């Protein structure tokens, strides 16, 4: 277990150094994302200055939501950045070389890339949480737990979408679209969703479990809200592993479109 | 004797549904089966160096993929180092090295040393043993300062030397090479061939390679398996094959004036362009130098190139002879 | 050169631009999976944004600013329609200028700038068409009240004009490639100004007074706001004012693009490489 973690850490460090190899580009992407987020915050600031609240959500709740979303996307991109282009990796047949190695296929796939833009999120998210989300120090462990749960769900969803590449060659852009759609849901007040839209946000595009459930857990700490975050993380991680391995066995039978 | 590799009636077929044109086809499709590998049998002894050659789509890569555990066969059996590759992929992975000539396993933007260090963790290697192996190989392969250079700044030949090093650092017993010299220049190819041959000999390494270059086979392997349409056509020692099929050179003379006229035993003329004389030389009968000297004496030569006959041609000859 | 000759040359230049426009249109249609993905995204973002604005309209909190009658969902639909139609023109400029591919274009007799703008506009128009159909489907499915017919008619004019303003703004970012290795930072800033001053998520009239004034006069409002405003409260006067702002900005931005292009070209011809 410790050896596996160390191996994973080595890979993440390598991926980050690779992203840093072109410093100007890295600064541009990370800084660009930071400014991008800042603009969105100005827009939300204007919104809440004018309308005060939406569905019971106030500025502080929105800051909490955006802060968790940004941190989740940041952690995912820095430590599990391979999720973003995994479908393309599968379709290019790059699994072959990894399959001839003895260890941690999923780990190798997730850690093969670090997204420079994610650093912009990872710096902005905690700043936002600390400055505007109206949190007390006592809530910090809840926030960290919420971010951990959200990250697991977000990366797992990404792996599920990427696994479609084992079945359909068009999955490359589709998988990215689905990840982006999940993100769109994750950047609006959870209180606005009703009916079918809400059902989608808590299933196929699990924005509900990426941020809304963690936000609820922080604002209303209870066994149920905590169980919801933890349960979703376990469930989505299991689903992602199952789907990926189903696809992988198909790939190894030679029935897959990839390779 | 226990073999390093055995394959018995090893087969792989792919199925896909073929749709015709027109609206009718939208509702019906025809199942088509392609036999990529159709029941191959062979054994490879430990320390043997074997080439699998054949035209594109002959089933070389599919065979290599099945033997390295990436792909499951549709029927038949195989063992590699006593293991069933597709069932014991991980256990096997520790004991084999794989190089895909067209795909890099190194991190482009970082020095090769960093990739090697990662692979040390992947293969659970002791740091000291690993450092010793890297030291040996870097001396043998003249890696030296290359180790600290970002991989994407290397020439293709330098990168390939690093790729091969990467596949050997965990001390595998068996090395799979898929087109290891593709796209390289003559010197780089020679360096790679020398290294593989010597390293394999010194460490008792079993080598299984596919290539399009007849020289790879001649200089590295002691046995050749020719496949075509998923079946083994020929399985012979390289020596035997060389005598029959590989002992030829193609010499092209460019001349300003009339075509070169030569009448030597073992030399046959082939069709060429204007001002170019293309000769096929049987090196068992006449030496290349002799042919060139004779042509030079004739005068008016502007340029000379010496080539091996292309793989397709050799395979065609072998295939024709086997029938 | 006689005036007849000059007129003939202008005609042939325009013909070439028209064929570039058609090519951009066809090319975008040919990449239909990407286009379909964009339509899907349009549906999704509209679902989210209408949920947001309906919620705001449903519960007017004390002290909050009032929404215009009928809400702003249709307005947001129009601005998203234009935003999602805008192609990444800056990348094309960056590719051509930075890869040295520009030289090939310079050997051709037709002006590169006009050809490239036409190509981008053509692609944008194809997206406007596909997203327009999507918008009508979405509106029908939502069961929402339709905007007044004249509002839609005005939108059909102001939408494409707004798109052209956006294409030119992105072209400015792209032309920066003569001086900067990457155009992305310029594009990002312009895009964010489009969102904020253009009024992507809400009409600029809802902004604090001073900000609203600045926004209305900016090219970003010409890109989005004026077209969107016509589906909320259509009026001939509003249409004419909007179109006036748009045309003025098209002329100004056109001049700016041309100026930047000439400067860049002079640099290229002087220094040989970028």
Describe this structure in words.
The complex is a heterotrimer of chains A (259), B (323) and C (274). Chain A has 259 residues and is mostly helical. Helices cover 74% and strands 0% of the residues of chain A. Chain A is built from twelve helices and no strands. Chain B is an alpha/beta fold. Chain B folds into two domains: 5-244, P-loop containing nucleotide triphosphate hydrolases (Rossmann fold); 247-322, Malonyl-CoA ACP transacylase, ACP-binding (Alpha-Beta Plaits, 2-Layer Sandwich). Helix content of chain B is 34%, strand content 29%. In chain B, strands 5-6-7-3-8-9 form a six-stranded mixed beta sheet, sandwiched between helices. Chain C has one domain. In chain C, α2 packs across α6 (112-142), α6 (112-142) packs antiparallel against α7 (149-175) and α11 (225-232) packs antiparallel against α12. Chain C has helices at 3-30, 32-58, 73-85, 89-99, 102-106, 112-142, 149-175, 184-197, 209-217, 219-223, 225-232, 236-271. The radius of gyration of chain C is 20 Å and the shape is elongated. The interface between A and C is medium-sized, with 35 and 34 residues.
């Amino acid at each position: 277990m410790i050896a596996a973690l160390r191996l994973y850490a080595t890979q993440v460090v390598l991926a980050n150094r690779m992203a840093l190899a072109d410093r100007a580009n890295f600064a541009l992407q990370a800084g660009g994302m930071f400014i991008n987020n800042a603009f969105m915050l100005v827009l939300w600031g204007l919104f809440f200055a004018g309308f005060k609240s939406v569905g019971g959500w106030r500025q502080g709740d929105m800051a909490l939501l955006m802060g968790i979303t940004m941190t989740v996307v940041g952690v995912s991109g820095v430590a599990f950045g391979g999720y973003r282009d995994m479908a393309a990796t599968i379709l290019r047949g790059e699994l072959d070389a990894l399959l001839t190695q003895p260890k941690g296929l999923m780990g190798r796939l997730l850690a093969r890339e670090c997204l420079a833009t994610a650093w912009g999120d990872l710096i902005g998210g905690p700043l936002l949480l600390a400055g505007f989300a109206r949190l007390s120090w006592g809530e910090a462990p809840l926030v960290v737990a919420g971010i951990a749960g959200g990250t697991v769900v977000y990366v797992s969803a990404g792996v599920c979408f990427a696994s479609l590449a084992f079945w359909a060659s068009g999955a490359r852009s589709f998988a990215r679209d689905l990840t982006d759609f999940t993100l769109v849901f994750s950047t609006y007040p959870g209180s606005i969703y009703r009916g079918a839209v809400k059902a989608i946000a808590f299933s196929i595009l699990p924005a509900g479990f990426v941020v809304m459930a963690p936000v609820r857990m922080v604002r209303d700490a209870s066994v149920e809200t905590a169980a919801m975050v933890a349960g979703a993380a376990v469930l989505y991680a299991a689903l992602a592993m199952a789907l990926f391995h189903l696809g992988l066995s198909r790939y190894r039978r030679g029935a897959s479109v990839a390779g | 004797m226990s073999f390093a590799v055995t394959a018995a009636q090893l087969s792989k077929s792919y199925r896909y549904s073929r749709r015709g044109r027109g609206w009718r086809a939208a509702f019906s499709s025809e199942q088509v089966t392609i036999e990529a590998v159709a029941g191959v049998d062979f054994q490879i002894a430990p320390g043997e160096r074997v080439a699998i050659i054949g035209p594109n789509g002959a089933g070389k890569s599919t065979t290599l993929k099945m033997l390295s555990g990436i792909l499951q066969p549709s029927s038949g059996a195989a063992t590699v180092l006593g293991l069933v590759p597709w069932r014991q992929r991980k256990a096997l992975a520790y004991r084999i090295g794989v190089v895909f000539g067209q795909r890099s396993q190194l991190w482009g933007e970082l020095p090769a040393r960093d990739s090697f260090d990662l692979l040390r963790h992947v293969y659970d290697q002791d740091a000291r043993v690993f450092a010793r192996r890297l030291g040996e190989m870097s001396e043998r392969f003249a890696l030296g300062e290359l180790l600290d250079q970002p991989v994407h700044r290397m020439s293709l030949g330098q990168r390939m030397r690093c790729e091969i090093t990467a596949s050997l650092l965990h001390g595998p017993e068996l090395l799979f090479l898929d087109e290891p010299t593709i796209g390289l220049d003559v010197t780089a190819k020679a360096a790679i061939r020398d290294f593989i041959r010597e390293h394999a000999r010194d460490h008792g390494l079993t080598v299984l390679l596919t290539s399009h270059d007849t020289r790879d086979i001649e200089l590295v392997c002691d046995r050749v398996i020719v496949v075509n349409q998923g079946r083994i056509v020929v399985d012979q020692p390289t020596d035997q094959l060389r005598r029959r099929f590989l002992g030829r050179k193609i010499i092209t003379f460019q001349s300003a004036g009339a075509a070169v006229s030569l009448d030597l035993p073992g030399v046959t003329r082939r069709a060429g362009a204007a001002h170019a004389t293309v000769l096929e030389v049987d090196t068992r009968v006449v030496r290349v130098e002799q042919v060139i000297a004779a042509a030079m004496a004739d005068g008016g030569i502007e340029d000379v190139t010496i080539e091996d006959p292309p793989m397709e041609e050799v395979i065609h000859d072998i295939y024709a002879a086997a029938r | 050169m006689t005036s007849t000759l000059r007129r003939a040359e202008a005609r042939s230049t325009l013909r070439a631009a028209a064929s570039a426009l058609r090519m951009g249109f066809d090319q975008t249609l040919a990449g239909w999976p990407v286009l379909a993905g964009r339509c899907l995204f349009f549906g999704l973002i509209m679902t989210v944004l209408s949920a947001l604005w309906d919620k705001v309209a449903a519960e007017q909190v004390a002290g909050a600013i009032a929404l215009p009658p009928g809400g702003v969902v249709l307005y947001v639909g129009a601005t998203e329609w234009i935003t999602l139609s805008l192609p990444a023109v800056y990348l094309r400029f960056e590719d051509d200028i930075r890869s040295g591919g520009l030289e090939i274009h310079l050997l051709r007799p037709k002006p590169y700038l006009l050809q490239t703008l036409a190509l981008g506009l053509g692609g944008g128009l194809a997206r406007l068409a596909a997203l327009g159909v999507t918008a009508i489907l979405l509106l029908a499915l939502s069961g929402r009240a339709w905007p007044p017919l004249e509002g839609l008619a005005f939108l059909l004019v102001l939408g494409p004009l707004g798109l052209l303003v956006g294409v030119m703004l992105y072209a400015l970012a792209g032309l920066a490639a003569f001086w900067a290795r990457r155009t992305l930072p310029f594009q990002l800033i312009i895009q964010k100004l489009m969102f904020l001053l253009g009024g992507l998520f809400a009409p600029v009239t809802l902004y604090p007074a001073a900000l609203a004034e600045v926004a209305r006069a900016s090219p970003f409002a010409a890109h989005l706001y004026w077209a969107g405003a016509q589906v909320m409260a259509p009026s001939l006067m509003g249409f004419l004012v909007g179109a006036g702002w748009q045309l003025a900005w098209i002329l100004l931005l056109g001049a700016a693009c041309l100026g930047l292009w000439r400067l860049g070209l002079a640099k290229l011809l002087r220094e040989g490489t970028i």
